[in-house]
């Protein structure tokens, strides 16, 4: 169950069209695409955040590291 689906995520910045909402779409593609992944600009402390709006007992947070693309390391959430 994806309790973050439909919520309004935020992140430090965006690059190449990789908006934060893409991290919640359920895609686990290992290839970067602005339609399926999120991407921040190179930063010292990149961050991503979503407010679940109510308390949940979270048992699993899945982070998928995609392959390196265009000199960038891709993290799929």
Work out the strand percent: 5-15%
Task: Tell me the Rg in angstroms.
Answer: 12 Å
Spatial order of the strands in the main sheet? 1-2
CATH class: Mainly Beta
Count every helix, treating DSSP H or I runs of 4 or more residues as helices.
Answer: 0
| Name of the CATH architecture | Sandwich
In short:
Helix content is 0%, strand content 10%.
Architecture overview:
By secondary structure, the protein is low in regular secondary structure. The chain has one domain: Galactose-binding domain-like (Jelly Rolls, Sandwich). Helix content is 0%, strand content 10%. It has no helices and four strands. It has strands at 10-11, 48-49, 64-65, 75-76. A two-stranded antiparallel ribbon has the order 1-2. The chain is globular, with a radius of gyration of 12 Å. The two termini are 14 Å apart. The mean pLDDT is 81. GO terms for molecular function: fucose binding; metal ion binding. Acts as a defensive agent. Recognizes blood group fucosylated oligosaccharides including A, B, H and Lewis B-type antigens. Does not recognize Lewis A antigen and has low affinity for monovalent haptens. Residues 1-21 are annotated as: Disordered.
